Amino acid sequence: MEYIGEHTLPGLAGRFFVSLALVSALISALAYYFSYTKKDKSYQKLARTSFLIHTGSIIGVVACLFYLMTSHYFEYDYVWKHSSLDLPGKYIFSAFWEGQEGSFILWLFWNAVLGLILMFKAKDWENHSMMVFSAVQAFIASMVLGVY
Question: Is 0.85 topped by the overall pTM?
Answer without folding.
Answer: yes
